[in-house]
Amino acid sequence: MRSRRSPDLGSAFTFGGRIPSGLGLLLVLILVATVGSWVTRDQTWAALVPGLVLRGQVWRLVSWAFVQNDPLTLLFGGFMLYSIGQQLAFTWSERRLVGTFLGLAAGATAVTVVAALLWFPADRPHLGMWPVVNALLLMWAMLYPDRQVSIWGVLPLTGKTLALLVVFGTVLYGLAGGGLPGLGAFVPHFAALGLGFALSRGGRLPTRRWKLQAREWWAEREFRRRSKHLKVIRKNGKDEPPRWMN
Predict the structure, then answer these.
(1) Mapping DSSP to helix (H, G, I), strand (E, B) and coil, where does residue 241 land?
(2) Which of 46, 112, 141, 160 could be joined to 63 by an S-S link, Cβ 3.0–4.6 Å?
(3) What domains appear along the chain, each with residue ranges and CATH number?
(4) pLDDT tens, per residue, the chain with 246 residues
(5) What is the CA radius of gyration of the chain?
(6) How far apart are CA 126 and CA 187, in angstroms?
(7) Rounded to two decimals, what is the model's pTM?
(8) Based on the number of CB atoms within 10 Å of its own CB, is 195 exposed (0-12), middle (13-18) or buried (19 or more)?
């Protein structure tokens, strides 16, 4: 009698083979993190806050992309990720899709942190997946510039036109939100779009170098924190060489 094999964890995220497991994992994490934050009424832990990232709260590098602040972002952003994610996973691979999603979020955070140090309007909290989803949409459009898509089943566009619409639409949203200072709230969007454009042109995210730099930074931070508790104690409080007796 042959034993029945239980399905592995990865296949559970394909939802019966309907979508790639990597994409399914991203969608499940987004849904669980978002609904959980609504139930607990606490989203502050996940937001992209440049000052808190500099203080060592490294989970904020990517957490902000998984927690959505309203149902429309969850539904429409999730649907957009579902639509383009399947084609990107097929063209790239599931692992590359997940890695690109996380890399775009972390890279956009790094750029936003630097921008916040140089430009005050960029020092704003951010929450939501749209910067990463728009960057993936741009990358998809650059892969298929002549392929025609229909936005919400109403407006037919080519990939090239869609890419331009995403970029200029982001600029217009920023200006409408408060003129030039309003663009500060969209720094994560511009950063993610820039990274997506660079990757589509043949570049690669230096994830290995970032990982090594993060480890070095953390080790140096821990060393400084622990060294504060160390103190040289000398006999009688005097800085004199020890005396030896024969």
Answers:
(1) coil
(2) 46
(3) 15-204 (1.20.1540.10)
(4) 444 444 555 677 787 778 899 999 999 999 999 999 999 999 999 999 999 999 999 999 999 999 999 999 999 999 999 989 999 999 999 999 999 999 999 999 999 999 999 998 899 999 999 999 999 999 999 998 888 777 666 677 888 888 888 899 999 988 988 888 888 889 999 999 999 999 988 755 555 666 677 778 778 777 777 776 666 555 555 555 555 554
(5) 24
(6) 10
(7) 0.77
(8) buried
Tokens of 65: 């992309």
Instruction: Tell me the CB-side half-sphere exposure of residue 114, using CA atoms within 13 A.
Output: 6
Give the pair of three-digit tokens for residue 48.
């992209």
Q: Give the count of beta carbons closer than 10 Å to the beta carbon of residue 142.
A: 17
Alpha-carbon distance values, 26 to 101, 105, 116 (Å): 9, 13, 28
Distance CA 173, CA 185 (A): 10
130 vs 49: CA distance, rounded Å: 16
